[in-house]
Hints:
six-stranded parallel sheet, 10 strands
Amino acid sequence: xxxxxxxxxxxxxxxxxxxxxxxxxxxxxxxxxxxxxxxxxxxxxxxxxxxxxxxxxxxxxxxxxxxxxxxxxxxxxxxxxxxxxxxxxxxxxxxxxxxxxxxxxxxxxxxxxxxxxxxxxxxxxxxxxxxxxxxxxxxxxxxxxxxxxxxxxxxxxxxxxxxxxxxxxxxxxxxxxxxxxxxxxxxxxxxxxxxxxxxxxxxxxxxxxxxxxxxxxxxxxxxxxxxxxxxxxxxxxxxxxxxxxxxxxxxxxxxxxxxxxxxxxxxxxxxxxxxxxxxxxxxxxxxxxxxxxxxxxxxxxxxxxxxxxxxxxxxxxxxxxxxxxxxxxxxxxxxxxxxxxxxxxxxxxxxxxxxxxxxxxxxx
Length: 364
């Protein structure tokens, strides 16, 4: 059994694990494994080479092709296309390791033990990371225990908060973000069986949503002001009928005010809060914190945001929404929102005073 980790923990593990130790991430497809690995090491200016081993039919793509050395008459392998030519360390990300053919796995054995392929040594400091899928829905190859023993094993289980933080930082459409905030179960569903609900499928195949699929939905609708029935059918092809119909219904109940509107122009939009119930304020709290943590504002707007955040707190007190204030404080306490804590608590004594009774151990 592997230890379970989320996104911040994975980042810390990548930072401290020595290059000579191999890592293996266990998890479903579409949860961001390859994206996080690539982004982390590209920031360190290391080349990341990704192999989808489950789709590889010829080991030559991994180890290169054999040819005859004209001088010695010996057979040897030509370096593969991805081989580092400047003797700089690289990162090899071997995705779908437990879906690979046996001859592919044989090549990986040597790689994980000695950082060599077909007799060629990877540059010192090179890193090998693999990912495996787990679940009955996959066609998997049993891995040799000797191979598994060469990896540090982690079950990668990113949280809903991890995805929402990523989504806010990467420009995911607000309607998708808002939908996932209210429908956590449709981000990484265990079992979803499509009902008809006005849409039909003529095959026995079922499409289910995942994190990658919701990014596709965002790319589809981010330039659309109105979502038509045709768009819903397109979305159903991306995330499945049940998730698409739930998304359609959510568009009819979306909050009529955005965090950007309140934080940048409180006086104009404060009237929109009159009919809000506790669940609406909880939802809005999350949107405000994610928006602030994503730093979706100009530095010149900082003071205005602090002033309007204070107005929002005073409004919550005025309408006696103490649970909503406590919820807001608990989010600010969360280590994942350190940017927010730094903004509204370090730079605003008024906000800190209002939240003091709700905050127990904020770390700045």
